[in-house]
Design a protein that fits this description.
Elements: H1 3-9, H2 22-28, H3 31-34, H4 39-58, E1 64-69, E2 75-79, H5 96-102, H6 125-131, E3 133-142, E4 145-152, E5 155-156, E6 161-165, E7 173-180, H7 192-205, E8 210-215, E9 223-227, H8 232-240, E10 251-261, E11 265-277, E12 284-289, E13 292-293, H9 299-318, H10 331-335, E14 338-346, H11 362-382, H12 384-413, E15 434-443, H13 445-454, E16 460-465, H14 477-480, H15 484-493, E17 508-514, H16 519-535, H17 537-541, E18 545-548, E19 553-557, E20 560-564, H18 572-580, E21 590-593, H19 602-610, E22 617-619, H20 625-636, H21 640-654
Parallel strand pairs: 1-8, 12-14, 15-16, 15-17, 17-18
Antiparallel strand pairs: 1-2, 2-7, 3-4, 3-7, 4-5, 4-6, 8-9, 10-11, 11-14, 12-13, 18-22, 19-20, 19-21
Length: 659
């Protein structure tokens, strides 16, 4: 094809230039406004509306917020604030309520007259929720009346109507009810637990505000939780550490700091911070800006980290723990085993995107660093016993890190793990690497043999593991790197771990855990998940980790056969009972229970568990890092009593399982 032919085939002129109105643009490009179309984006719709209610609370005009998951799939968010203004705007000739629901860039938060600090900054959030809703009803209680307006796919169906006078003592406020539009968004359901965890965090960082979540989808009685905390982030840290052995009481500080902002004069940053060390090697850091969870951190988190490291080094040298010839503790040394939360209130925050995952204000770093430095140094000087425990913890971390570095260097300097004697024939690799390749991590040599024979060698690799791998929740890094199964796993994936982790070096687009459908298989799966969560978490965050779902039963009736797979909420006996209902005469049905993958021949394993056209894979996600950390620490950590309580609490749910 010549260049002239190409030019004729691809036309680009004035007819290609389109102008989309606000609502149409949001519906065409939802990722720009709510981060995508998946379940996270679905939950983000609720967060955007709740953030507006939280802003009312920060302004001192609201102390009660309600979120209701309605039976018809819609959501209602209501508060007892002053209510969105409903008066007619001079510029548009429309009600202020309609403007904030349909026009991006419309907000009462562009100056500080109504809100000193707020999470809603761009005048986009409520408009985006409206645009991505099949139906939305806004009800406002203010100026002595209840007002209402209905919208369909972002566009008004009615004008703003004055419905009725308010009853005596009836509170003012706003109620937004919306039903997501699944013609734009992926079809998903709201998760009560995910929302509960988010609102629990909000209640911790917005003290003395009651936040109620109710699920009317549950019958006959709705499920309801109310969150209310007086202690702020200090209580939050104590809650996160309740399953751990702590080294000292929480270090806590709250202060407003006046700072100079270049070309903008002075500004006030409200800083609230709490942190506490425990005897684990895990790091929990949560950061909030104007009560919004900034999951990617930002300048406030950087300020807290640098201040903690600086104070520990200054105190350690002053008290003689670090000698003149000793190197300073690194940030990794001083942060290991810490649970830390920083929350800032900023009048003009700058976020990385509309989803507000990272705070960018450079002046916030200095404000947080100042508050943390003053409070932490005072704590160490007034509590020498606790200070010694913290320094000892840092010393232990430093020694373990140096041992791990030596172990890594030994691995790097020696022959490739894939070529060494630890992996003779263990990894059956595939012909390709990259996004279309996948690796099955298989329990045992027997199942590994069937998987190797049944796989598609072009894109499926098999790595059999012998026995139960090391519990990496309890093991030090140097001990972990000395374990053959762990080394095999790290080498096969190619990414490295911890600070060496590089997602670009991942050799397979899908990493699939495939274990037996019994207690041992569940244990091995949990150990593997613990390893990935603690040491390769980006693998999960980027959607590369999966769990295979092999069948539990094979039913044969004449020439017909059917595989029965696990289902949430049903034990093995219930699954079998449900499956047998399809057959008129149960006596003619032969039932085979698969206890292990090795009981299936290669053809059956391919047909049921490895063939992309038939198989079911469960993607492993991290909805909330703090909650996931708590569960892993409770189930896999050193403290026995919490694990015992968990098992006793849930014993009834598993006592009748056929395992």
């Amino acid at each position: 094809m010549t260049d002239k032919t190409v030019a004729a085939a691809v036309q680009y002129n004035e007819n290609n230039i389109q102008y989309l109105k606000d609502i149409d643009h949001i519906r065409l490009r939802p990722g720009m406004y709510v981060g995508g179309t998946d379940i996270r984006a679905l939950h983000h719709l609720i967060y955007e509306v709740v953030d507006n209610s939280i802003d009312e609370a920060l302004a001192g005009r609201c102390d009660k917020i309600f979120v209701i998951l309605n039976a018809d799939g819609s959501v209602t968010v209501a508060d007892n604030g002053v209510g969105i203004p409903v008066g007619i705007q001079k510029d548009t000739g429309r009600s202020s309520l309609e403007v904030v629901l349909t026009k991006t860039g419309s907000s009462g938060k562009f100056d500080s007259s109504a809100y000193r600090v707020s999470g809603g900054l761009h005048g986009v959030g409520l408009t985006a929720v409206n645009a991505l809703s099949e139906d939305l009803v806004a009800e406002v209680y203010r100026e002595g009346f209840m007002w209402r307006q209905q919208h369909h796919r972002g566009k008004p169906v009615t004008d703003v109507q004055k419905v009725r006078p308010l009853e005596p003592n009836e509170p003012t406020g706003t109620s937004i009810t919306f039903k997501p539009d699944f013609s734009v968004l992926d079809r998903n359901e709201f998760h009560f637990e995910t929302l509960a965890q988010r609102f629990r965090e909000m209640a911790f960082v917005t003290r003395r505000v009651s936040l109620t979540l109710r699920d009317d989808r549950v019958t006959p009685l709705p499920r309801e939780l109310t969150f209310y905390f007086e202690g702020g982030v200090k209580s939050f840290v104590q809650a996160l550490n309740r399953y751990r052995t702590v080294l000292h009481p929480p270090v806590y500080a709250e202060k407003d700091v006046e700072i100079n902002v270049e070309n903008k004069g002075t500004s006030t940053v409200g800083v609230e911070v709490a942190f506490q060390y425990n005897d684990s090697s895990n790091i929990i850091e949560l950061a909030f800006a104007n009560t919004i969870s900034t999951t990617d951190g930002g300048t406030h988190l950087t300020g807290m980290r640098s201040a903690i490291t600086s104070v520990i080094n200054r105190y350690a040298r002053k008290a003689g723990f670090l000698k003149e010839k000793d190197a300073n503790f690194s940030g990794n040394d001083t942060l290991e085993g810490i649970t830390a939360i920083v929350s800032v209130k900023v009048s003009n925050p700058s976020f990385e995107s509309q989803t507000k995952v990272k705070l960018l204000n450079p002046e916030v770093q200095g404000a947080v660093s100042q508050v943390v430095s003053e409070a932490f140094m005072e704590f160490l000087e007034l509590n020498p016993r606790e200070a010694r425990r913290i320094i000892d913890k840092c010393m232990t971390s430093k020694r373990a890190r140096e041992a791990a570095r030596k172990a890594r260097d030994l691995v790097r300097s020696g022959p490739s793990l894939l070529e060494s004697s630890t992996l003779p024939g263990k990894l059956a690799d595939c012909s390709i690497t990259g996004a279309d390749a996948e690796i099955y991590i298989v329990e045992g040599d027997s199942a590994g043999g069937s998987a190797k024979q049944g796989r598609d060698r072009h894109f499926q690799a098999i790595l059999p593991l012998r026995g139960k791998i090391l519990n990496t929740e309890r093991a030090s890094l140097d001990k972990m790197l000395d374990n053959n199964e762990i080394k095999s796993l790290i080498a096969a994936l190619g990414t490295g771990i911890h600070e060496d982790f590089n997602i670009e070096k991942l050799r397979y687009g899908r990493v699939i855990i495939m274990t037996d459908a019994d207690v041992d298989g569940s244990h091995i799966r949990t150990l593997l998940l613990t390893f990935f969560f603690r040491h390769m978490q980006p693998l999960i965050q980027n959607g590369h980790l999966y769990i295979a779902q092999p069948p539990i039963y094979l039913l044969k009736s004449g020439k017909q056969h059917e595989y029965v797979y696990p289902k949430a909420g049903l034990n093995d006996a219930q699954l079998l009972e449900q499956a047998l209902k399809k057959y008129k005469d149960n006596a003619k049905v032969t039932v085979q229970r698969y206890k292990g993958l090795g009981e299936m021949n290669p053809e059956q394993l391919w047909e049921t568990t490895m063939n992309p056209e038939n198989r079911t894979l469960l993607k492993v996600t991290i909805e909330d890092a703090a909650e996931a950390d708590k569960v892993f620490d409770m189930l896999m950590g050193n403290s026995v009593p919490p694990r015992r309580r968990f098992i006793q609490t849930h014993a009834r749910q598993v006592k009748n399982l056929d395992i």
